[in-house]
From TrEMBL:
<dbReference type="Pfam" id="PF03819">
    <property type="entry name" value="MazG"/>
</dbReference>
<dbReference type="InterPro" id="IPR004518">
    <property type="entry name" value="MazG-like_dom"/>
</dbReference>
<protein>
    <recommendedName>
        <fullName>NTP pyrophosphohydrolase MazG-like domain-containing protein</fullName>
    </recommendedName>
</protein>
<feature type="domain" description="NTP pyrophosphohydrolase MazG-like">
    <location>
        <begin position="29"/>
        <end position="90"/>
    </location>
</feature>
Amino acid sequence: MAKSINQLCSEAYETAKSKGWHDEPRETGTLLALVHSEVSEALEADRKGNQEGFEVELADVCIRIFDICGSSNIDLEDAILTKMERNKGRSYKHGNKAY
Ligand SMILES: [Mg+2]
């Protein structure tokens, strides 16, 4: 059976904690910068045509986010489902936004 998103959050947090990454508190800004660093690694892998590396770095992005949510008791699963439902109700290209 597949694990739920919140199970993955707990697991990512427990793994990071067991490796010492939560021995001292870190600022949210630092944690978000680390998410961004994984996004940058994904960009570099894609630019090099490294599909396997691209997939691994996207996984790292998720794992970093899972760790943040697991350590903060954020219900990421509910947040994602709620936002995805909200997105369904948005207008085409959100009213002609460029991005
Ligand atoms: Mg990485």
